[in-house]
Every structure is written in C-alpha cells, then in structure tokens.
Write a structure and sequence with these properties.
two-stranded antiparallel ribbon; two-stranded antiparallel sheet
C-alpha cells in the first residue's frame, strides 16, 4: 500500500482491439511501439518486480520503510553529540555520568523496558528528544499550510510573532506529548510508531518539522498511530476534548492530508519497529537519559521462572521429532547390517 507504481498497470500502452469488426479470438493486437516477440511465449510482458525496482531502491534510503537505513533523528543528534564530546576534550572535563544502580547478592536490578514492552515514560522522553533534534538541526523550514499553526491554531490564544523562528525546548515538546498520551491512555509502542510516521511524512512530503508546524505534525502522527496500533482506537472527537479549541472538522482534514502525504502507507514492519526502538535507546545513552532499573521482586522472579520453564519445554518439544528421526535412521542402519550378516 502506498506504492507509486500500481501492479495493475503496465508501463507500455494497452493494446487496442477492434472488437466490433472482428471476433475477440481473431483480433490483431496493435501497439504504438515495437515489442519483443518470443516464438514460445508470445508478446513480452514486463515482470512486476522489474516495474517496482525503482520504488524498492528508494525504500532502501528511507529509514521508515527499510530496516537497514539509518534513522533520521539519530543522524541529526550526532552533530550535537560530537560537539559535546569536543567541548569536554577542550575543557578537560568529563561528561556527567548517569547514576546506575548495581546489583548485589541481596538485590538484583532489572531493566523492564524491552522491545515488546517498552517503558512508557522513558520512551516518550526519547521520542520527544528525537523531535527536538529534528527541529533544531533542520535543513530548511519548508512546510505545508495544513500543518501551519498560524493558519490552523490549536488554541484560541494568539500565536506569538516569533513562534515560527523560536525553537521549542525539549521540555515543552515532552509536556505536549505527555498530555496527549496520558489523557488518551496510549501505549509506549504507539510512541515509537508515531516517530516512524513522522519521519515517513518528512521523507515522502519532502518537508521539514519546524517551530511553526511541529505541534500539528506530532498530533497527526499520534492520531494515526493510535488508530493503527491500539486495539481500542481513540476517536478524533476524543482529541477535541483534550485540546478544547480544535474542531473535529480540522482533525479530519489534517488526518486526510496526513494519509495522502504518506501515500496511505501505514505499514510498519517488525524490523523497522525494532530498529527505531534500539536507536531510541542509543539516543538516550548519548544524552544521559537512563531507562529505569527496578529491583527484582518475588512475584517478578516467579513470573520469569515460569516463562523460562515454558520456553524450555517448548524447545524440548521441538527437539523430539529430530531425535526420533535420528533414532529411526540408526535402527534402519542396524537392520541393514543384520541383513548383510545373515546373507
């Protein structure tokens, strides 16, 4: 979904058949250009993989579609990370180390944030930090009218004159996203998908996220991610109750434009999701944002032990057919040897 080349269309013109003059079976096929004709297969038809090859090559450079492409936010953050490291070297100072909890004989600390169940607070912080680096290190300020907050304000308050030039701080972005996630009761996985849709929008529409449009772009990405990811989706009218001054018609129009700019490509492969998760953890490590470590409780230990037993039994069941096949082969070999001795 969202491909620019349809599988139902051929790059060559459709053959014209004179149905009124002759019967369908005897109708000659005429084209406007010469085609290669094979003696065995007839008229040559280009394979769909050949027609979609340019799209596949384009996806390899798009991080929101291809798992091997580097994420945009991590590339933009590396500029600030290198400057911080350079300043520490020149000033002969060491960066502020994160206070990590260490396990002991009596207490074991675990990081409960996993790729399947990320920590909500830490994930939202990392996603908003990625949005902050997108705005700060943007290449230009190209935007669209549907996302311009001066033309489509989210509040009745007058937008400041320098709103389109003053970069928002990370705390402001985090408070805006946290309010939406806590009010709509969204999950941490939805935050990761939100970032995927945001970078896909910037790539497909060839636009930038800047101080004048970041709220509406983030709101549109959250709106779409909550409907695609969560089983119980949040309706547009529910967001109008969170943001009191926005109308349902404005939300519907923004959602429609967002989908059209994404070319209706809302698919997020598991490999792309995992890449964004681990890149967010790398971003947190570079910016001294630690994921919480919780002590291992008795209930948690019993749950981990039960999961390990289930996995162990599963692997045993998977290995039994292989063992049976090997035993039957040995028995068959022994029978053959016995027959050879008897003969």
């Amino acid at each position: 979904m969202g491909g620019t080349v349809s599988c139902c269309m051929s790059p060559r013109e459709t053959p014209k058949i004179h149905r009124r003059e002759v019967e369908l079976e005897d109708a000659p096929i005429t084209t406007t250009e010469e085609v290669d004709v094979s003696e065995d297969t007839g008229t040559y038809l280009q394979h769909i993989s050949d027609r979609e090859l340019p799209d596949e090559l384009a996806q390899e450079s798009n991080p929101s579609d291809h798992p091997r492409a580097s994420t945009l936010f991590l590339n933009k953050s590396q500029t600030d990370v290198r400057e911080k490291r350079k300043s520490h070297i020149l000033n002969h100072t060491s960066p502020r180390l994160m206070t990590k909890k260490s396990s002991s004989c009596s207490t074991i600390f675990l990081d409960d944030s996993t790729v399947s169940q990320p920590n909500l607070k830490s994930t939202v912080k990392c996603v908003t930090l990625a949005v902050y680096y997108h705005i700060k290190n943007r290449d230009s300020s190209h935007t669209l009218d549907i996302f311009d907050e001066k033309k489509h304000p989210l509040t009745r308050e007058k937008v400041p004159e320098d709103y389109a030039t003053a970069d928002p701080e990370h705390k402001l972005i985090y408070r805006f996203v946290r309010t939406l996630f806590s009010s709509a009761q969204l999950t941490a996985e939805c935050a990761i998908v939100t970032l995927v849709y945001l970078e896909r929008l910037l790539t497909y529409a060839e636009m930038d996220i800047c101080p004048g449009n970041w709220k509406r772009i983030v709101l549109g990405a959250i709106l779409l991610a909550s409907k695609v990811w969560d089983d119980q989706a949040v309706w547009n009218v529910d967001y109008c109750q969170i943001l009191k001054d926005i109308t349902v018609e404005d939300m519907n129009e923004m959602e429609r434009h967002f989908l059209e700019l994404l070319q209706f490509n809302i698919n997020v492969p598991a490999s792309v999701y995992a890449k964004y998760y681990f890149d967010l953890r790398s971003l947190a490590e570079d910016n001294n944002l630690s994921f919480p470590l919780e002590p291992l409780s008795n209930k948690r230990a019993q749950k981990l032990e039960a999961i390990s037993r289930l996995c162990e039994d599963k692997y045993k069941d998977m290995g039994r057919p292989c063992m049976r096949r090997s035993l039957s082969a040995d028995n068959l070999l022994g029978v053959r040897k016995s027959h050879a001795v008897l003969s």
